[in-house]
Amino acid sequence: MLNLQEKYDQETKGKLCRVGLVAGMIGTSIGRSQADVIKMESFEMKSDAETYTDPMDPAIDHFLVNQPGQALVVHAGWSAWYRNTRNGVGLTDGDVFGVGQNGPTAWADGQQGYRINDTDGAIDLLFDPVDKANTVHLSLYITDSMWEEDDVIQILWGTHTILDTSGLDIDDLNLEGRWLELTTTSSQFEALQITVETNANDEGVFIDHIRWSQTVPSPGALAVLGLGAARSRRRK
What we know:
The protein has 236 residues and is an alpha+beta fold. It has a single domain (4-227), classed as Jelly Rolls (Sandwich). Helices cover 19% and strands 35% of the residues. The strands form three sheets. Strands 1, 6, 7, 9, 12 and 14 form a six-stranded antiparallel beta sheet that branches. The radius of gyration is 20 Å and the shape is globular.
């Protein structure tokens, strides 16, 4: 029978393996395909300030709305949904949130990005599907902080999970303090969703340089697919 420490170690290794497998699949998909970029979002539009204060009741789930003289939080092609998961103040206390310049030392592309910081609840950043785009690439920066296990960073592309830290300590995943380049491919165009749940002003996630593209197999991959189809026909 496993003692508690051994059981914990095995469970932790299993969780880390799941994160590693996702990263591995992301990495291998790049070299096997060619992609034509259909749309790009680097959040370089005008934003009136660096902070955002939500005037809505934090006890009730709701869409965020742009406020005069504050950081831009929604725009054509994407929206933001707040969920009360902590019975806290949400974004009503004013936070570095939405489109702005304050963030990492340098942005992945341009001078601005989208900041999700000290949410005191969960924020779902929702992007509209882009027609014919079956692949998404994005740059993600996670601040080097003292994250807790109930903090969550989740990135979904339709039913595909790009990253999910649920039940894990982000500090143990070697994801902090640098730009991460993430991508995945589907058989059809999907909707991108980025979810962040945190409760401290030094726990932040920065998003930049999102690219939607149509991916087709490279010539080598096409040859392999053709060979596989030929073998399949011969077996019939």
